[in-house]
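Lab notebook: predicted structure, single chain.

Context: the supervisor wants predicted structures on file for every construct in the current expression panel, including those that have not yet been purified. This is the next one on the list. No modifications to the sequence; it matches the entry in the shared construct table.
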Amino acid sequence: MKNIIYSLLLVFILVAAKSDHKYYNEKFRPQIHFSPEKNWLFETGGFIYSHGEYHLFYQNVSINSKILSNQLGHAVSKDLVHWQHLPFAFIPDEKATNITTCRPMSGSAVSDSLNLSGLQQNSEKPMLIFYSDSQGNQNLAFSTDKGMTWKKYSKNPLISNPGEDTHDPRVFYHAASGKWMMAFYKGKGKESKTGSINLYSSSDLLHWEYRNNIDGIGECPDLFEVAFEGKQSEKKWVLLSGEGDYRIGAFDGMTFKPETEMRKLDFGKNFFAAQTLSNAPDGKVIQIAWMRGGEYSEMPFNGQMSFPMELTLRATKKGPVLCRKPIESISKLFDNELLKKDKNLIPGLKGNLLGGIKGDVVYLKTTVEIKSSDSFGIIVRNGKQSGGTDIHYDSAKKTIDVNGIKMVLEPIDGKIVLEILFDRSSIEILGNNGEMGISTCFSPAQIKEDEMILYTQGGELFVESLEAHTLKSVWAAK
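Prediction complete. Output recorded below exactly as produced.
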C-alpha cells in the first residue's frame, strides 16, 4: 500500500500557490483542521501531551529533482485546535538518496516523565520519538528542551530489522505490568493488505525485549485502553489498524484477546494512520488521523489532519463499540448559530430549515425520525453554479452516501443522529452519536457557494432537533 503512495507522490508535486496573500486563507486551506504551511503532509509521527502543551509530529515531504526530502514536522497547541508551527524536529533518514530508499514512516512520541531513559539534562524531562528508518529498524530521537531541538540516540537502532517489512512503531505504557510497550507493523508481503504486529516491552525505553506477535492487523497499528461512557473505571483495550479496522478486547502485556469481531471505525477513503493521545488531561483518550488522498489544486501544501476526536466505548445490543465525538474545544470556534426543534419536513413545501445559516466551515448536529420519508439529506456548499455536495440517506437500504462512499447506518428507535463537520476541503460525518463515521475530502467548485439545504423525498421527516454553527478560523493573521 505504501509503495503505491510513494509513487503517487511524484504525481502530486506541488505547484506555487495562487493565493489571496492572506495567511492560511487560500481557497482550499482548512480553517479548523491542521495542515502544514507547505509541502506534503504524510502520516502522524507522534501525538503527546507534555509540559502543558499538545505536540503533533507529522511527516512533511517535498520532492526536488526526483529526490524525496522527508522531514518530521512539529506543531504545538494549548487546546488542540489552535496550532503553532515549530521548526522541523529532524530528518528521519538522512542516508536516503531517492524516493525508493527514503520511505516516509510514521512513529510515535512519549513523555519520559520519570526519566527512565536517563536522558534528562538539567530540570527538563525528556521527550522521546520512536521512528523507523528505510531499512526497517526501530530508532529513537530525544529532546531535553521541551521539544525545541532533537538528537538521535547514539546507540540506534533500538531494534534491528531481522529482514522483514517492519515499520510504524507505536509506544505506550501498560500500567498493569508496569512496562512500556512497542507495537510495530510486520508485513506479509507486497500483495497483502494485512499483516501482524511485533510486540516488545521495556523498563527503560531503551532496551527492548520481544514479547509476542499479534496477527491480523494492518499498517500504522494503535493499541490503547479506553473507558466506557460515564464509567471511567470500566475499560477495555482496542487494537486499531491504520485503515480504521478495530477489535475490542483484553490485553495483559503479552497477548491481545479479542472480544468482538473486526469492526470499522471510519468508512471514508480519507482516514488513515490514526493515533491516540493516551496521556491527555482528565484521562481522556483523543484521536487524530491523517486525511490522506485529498486534492488541493494550486495550493502550497497537500494534506491535512482530521479534527481531534474524543474516544469512548459504548455498550450496545451488538456488544461494545468504539465511539467518537469532536473534542470540547470546538465550542470555542462557534460563531453564528441556528437552533430548531420539533419540525415536520414534507416534500415539495417551500422552506428550508437550514436557510438561516451559511458558510464554508460549519458544525451541524441533527436528530431526525424517518417516519414515511423514502430518503433525506443535507446538501452543503450549495449555490447557483453547482449543486453542492449531497449527504444522502436511503431509508429502505439504511445507508448514508456522500462522495460515492456508502455506510450502513441503522435507525435506533426509529431515529438517526448525524453530526457533520465540514471545512473548505473536507467533510467528517459521525452517525448515531459517533458509533461509525465517514471522513472524506472534497473540492467545492466556488468558494462563495456556501448555502445548506435539509430535504426529504417521498414522505415526511420529523426533525426532533437541529443545531448548526459557523466556525471561526483557528489561524490568526501572520
